[in-house]
Amino acid sequence: xxxxxxxxxxxxxxxxxxxxxxxxxxxxxxxxxxxxxxxxxxxxxxxxxxxxxxxxxxxxxxxxxxxxxxxxxxxxxxxxxxxxxxxxxxxxxxxxxxxxxxxxxxxxxxxxxxxxxxxxxxxxxxxxxxxxxxxxxxxxxxxxxxxxxxxxxxxxxxxxxxxxxxxxxxxxxxxxxxxxxxxxxxxxxxxxxxxxxxxxxxxxxxxxx
Length: 209
Prior knowledge:
The protein is elongated and about 85 Å long. It contains no helices and 12 strands. By secondary structure, it is mostly beta strands. Strands 1, 2, 3, 4, 5, 6, 7, 8, 9, 10, 11 and 12 form a 12-stranded antiparallel sheet that branches.
């Protein structure tokens, strides 16, 4: 999982990251699962509806500096003017944990790139994660801030069949999901907009009904 961070501009805290997980790291790994059904619209186009879940946890090391006020460093009358010097507390390094457990629904439109049973597929859709989701952002061993509002994400997936039979298919391919909603974590040092990229595995069972 990856994130865009947006600082809280209403507090007096300046935050910089001293350590984040590398792009290709198990520390960024998470799990996403979906279950649903597919309704063919034509020989190459289909609609997919279902339920989604996502879980991951990441740690970040950051440095925070708090603004505490101003010191007067020169004359204070109208002739000499006033010079104020901002005062900051000593930098404090902390480890922050972001923990996500989301539940929702997804709607996707899929396209089969050919008439053969083993033709590759492309799916694009919308995911909606409900308020029953659990999201927390906090200092390890200290205060944490929660967020649980409904959020939305766009997804695009590629699917290449590896095994095909009359009643089932097993597929593999890249998957990208981009969040459309900022997770605000009221009272926290920043808000977060997530996005994920990874490898997806799909099993499709075809009913004879």
